[in-house]
């Protein structure tokens, strides 16, 4: 029965060309424990089973400590008769839960891996992962947390630290944490998976839909030029099947092909081809841009800045306030409005389109395809190329419903 020893697992290199150093547990267990240390083949002596490169002395000290603690744990389990009664997973857990406060030279930590992943992300996804890292930094020092230390109890503690956030916002941070741990598993950085059988809390959110009667009222309102622009852009997103603001902002004249707007969604990369209906064309003609398809986005470096102004304007738009039968105005002669919907945002156009489509008994698979959502069997989707005609017809039907009723 061989003793445990260190080895460099050269079966698959990481992206930086390094390999994981493992403890091969002896005594016929066929268990390999992650040390969290990664070295190049040139920095490892396979005969002596030691690091030879930069910081070798310190790294070997860490590895020797790990190996000694594993050996001591094996001896303890054999002496108390538990060694032969444990399953493979149980044995692995017993051998990795060593409460080791070792230096982290060359050891990827939770914080360092978060930063690695953030560097590969773009746009909103990178921002969300960055927000999770900030939340983790308020809970602990993620750059000192090794993956073997993350347990279900630790996750619960992090979740409970996210006070003031909604259930779904806290769930988002847990999913980002889970994604990083999954990445660590895939790269051989850890074999610890604390999310096994862990249920991330979730609650249904209220549909952010503008009732069709209010949408029709919004269409009829007499507004200032300032508010008219924001109303028109909101309606344009509706006429373009709930297009996202980031995608709308990124359009140029080159995205118009044979009477259609064609683009790839920034979030998913999915290709869209939306027929430009007359109502949408009228708005496009009204706000022709130079650099962008729409002039409002020529004046903003970041679409989020424009979206913030758009949402603020939408929440104020509504019929003129009347007191004693008299319309009320500000000193600058602008009308005082009663908001149609104080909580509305640009995203309500997308939800409203989907809701109206459902009210019209448009098939769910057509609605899902129009919005870029998955529906039904993934396998079926491989073999069926969805017809654009169905989506075009659905959009026309929704627009006619808004303008003319059923």
Describe the structure.
By secondary structure, the chain is mainly alpha-helical. The protein has three domains: 5-96, no CATH class; 110-186; 212-404, hpI Integrase, Chain A (Orthogonal Bundle). It contains 15 helices and ten strands. A three-stranded antiparallel β-sheet has the order 1-2-3.
Summed up:
The protein has 406 residues and is mostly helical. The protein has helices at 56-79, 88-96, 110-120, 123-139, 152-161, 167-186, 212-220, 225-239, 245-249, 278-286, 303-314, 348-359, 364-371, 378-383, 388-404; strands at 5-8, 19-25, 31-39, 44-45, 50-51, 256-257, 260-264, 271-275, 322-323, 326-327.
The secondary-structure class comes to mainly alpha
Query: How many structural domains in the coordinates?
Result: 3
User: Which sequence of SSEs, written as H and E, runs from N to C?
Assistant: EEEEEHHHHHHHHHEEEHHEEHHHH
Q: In terms of per-residue confidence, which ranges show pLDDT below 50 for 5 or more consecutive residues?
A: 99-106, 376-385
Shape summary: elongated
| Largest beta sheet: strand ordering | 1-2-3
Q: Count of DSSP E strands? A: 10
The CATH architecture of the largest domain:
Orthogonal Bundle
Helix fraction, binned, reads 40-55%
SSE layout:
Blueprint: E1 5-8, E2 19-25, E3 31-39, E4 44-45, E5 50-51, H1 56-79, H2 88-96, H3 110-120, H4 123-139, H5 152-161, H6 167-186, H7 212-220, H8 225-239, H9 245-249, E6 256-257, E7 260-264, E8 271-275, H10 278-286, H11 303-314, E9 322-323, E10 326-327, H12 348-359, H13 364-371, H14 378-383, H15 388-404
Antiparallel strand pairs: 1-2, 2-3, 4-5, 6-7, 7-8, 9-10
């Amino acid at each position: 029965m061989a003793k445990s020893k260190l080895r460099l697992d050269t079966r698959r290199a990481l992206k930086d060309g390094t390999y994981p150093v493992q403890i091969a547990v002896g005594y016929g267990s066929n268990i390999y424990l992650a040390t969290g240390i990664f070295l190049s083949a040139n920095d490892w002596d396979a005969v002596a089973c030691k690091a030879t490169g930069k910081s070798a002395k310190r790294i070997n000290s860490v590895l020797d400590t790990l190996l000694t603690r594993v050996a001591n744990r094996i001896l303890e389990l054999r002496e108390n008769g538990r060694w032969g009664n444990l399953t493979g997973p149980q044995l692995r857990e017993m051998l990795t839960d060593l409460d080791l406060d070792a230096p982290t030279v060359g050891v990827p930590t939770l914080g360092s891996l978060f930063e690695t992943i953030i560097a590969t992300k773009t746009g909103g996804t990178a921002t969300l992962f960055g927000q999770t890292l900030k939340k983790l930094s308020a809970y602990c020092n993620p750059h000192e947390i090794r993956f073997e230390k993350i347990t279900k109890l630790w996750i619960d503690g992090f979740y409970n630290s996210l006070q003031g956030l909604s259930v779904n916002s806290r769930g988002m941070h847990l999913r980002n944490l889970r994604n990083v741990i999954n990445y660590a598993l895939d790269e051989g950085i850890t074999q610890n998976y604390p999310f096994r059988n862990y249920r991330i809390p979730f609650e249904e959110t209220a549909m952010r839909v503008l009732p069709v009667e209010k949408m029709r009222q919004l269409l009829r309102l007499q507004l200032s030029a300032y508010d008219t622009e924001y109303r028109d852009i909101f309606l344009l997103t509706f006429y373009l099947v709930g297009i996202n603001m980031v995608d709308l902002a990124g359009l140029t004249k080159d995205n118009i092909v044979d009477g259609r707007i064609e683009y790839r969604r920034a979030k998913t990369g999915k290709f869209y081809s939306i027929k430009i209906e007359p109502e949408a064309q009228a708005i496009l003609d009204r706000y022709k841009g130079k650099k962008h398809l729409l002039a409002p986005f020529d004046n903003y470096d970041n679409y989020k800045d424009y979206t913030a102004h758009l949402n603020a304007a939408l929440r104020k738009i509504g019929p003129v306030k009347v007191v004693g039968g008299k319309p009320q105005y500000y000193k600058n002669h602008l009308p005082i409005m009663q908001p149609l919907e104080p909580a509305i945002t640009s995203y309500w156009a997308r939800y409203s389109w989907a809701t109206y489509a459902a009210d019209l008994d448009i098939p769910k698979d057509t609605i899902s395809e129009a919005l870029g959502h998955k529906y039904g069997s993934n396998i079926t989707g491989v073999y069926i190329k969805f017809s654009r005609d169905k989506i075009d017809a659905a959009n026309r039907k929704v627009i006619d419903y808004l303008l003319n009723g059923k």
